């Protein structure tokens, strides 16, 4: 596979993961926490794919195969790191949403 195609795999998988995470937090706000959790699982799988490609490039370089550092490669790494960070933050946000919703249910039970 050509270098550009390999790098594009990182970009595509990372972008998909980021989109899934953002969708997950929107759905969590609607109270659909189980569905949000499934989206986060899918995002993790996409990040795994991107990481696997990245690891392959790192291993190739470790074997002495030179990897060309291009703007496209830098862009791909940026996408991957951004998606990883977004997922970590979204996981925390969804936990906050989960706790808030549980508290609201408790309070509602006290008022009713």
TrEMBL record:
- PROSITE patterns in the record: PTS_EIIA_TYPE_3
Question: What keywords appear on the UniProt entry?
Answer: Magnesium, Metal-binding, Phosphotransferase system, Sugar transport, Transferase, Transport
Q: Which Gene3D superfamilies match?
A: Phosphotransferase system, lactose/cellobiose-type IIA subunit
Question: What does the note accompanying the cofactor annotation read?
Answer: Binds 1 Mg(2+) ion per trimer.
Cofactor(s) annotated in UniProt: Mg(2+)
Biological process terms from the Gene Ontology for this record are: phosphoenolpyruvate-dependent sugar phosphotransferase system
Give one GO molecular function term.
transferase activity
The reply to whether Membrane figures as a keyword in the UniProt entry is no
Q: Mind telling me which InterPro entries this protein's record contains? A: PTS_IIA_lac/cel, PTS_IIA_lac/cel_sf
Binding residues for Mg(2+), per the UniProt record? Answer: 78
Q: Which SUPFAM superfamilies match?
A: Enzyme IIa from lactose specific PTS, IIa-lac
Q: Which residues carry this modification: Phosphohistidine?
A: 75
Q: Which residues of this protein are catalytic? A: 75
Kindly provide the name given to this protein in its UniProt entry.
Answer: PTS lactose/cellobiose transporter subunit IIA
Phylogenetic placement of the source organism: Bacteria, Bacillati, Bacillota, Bacilli, Bacillales
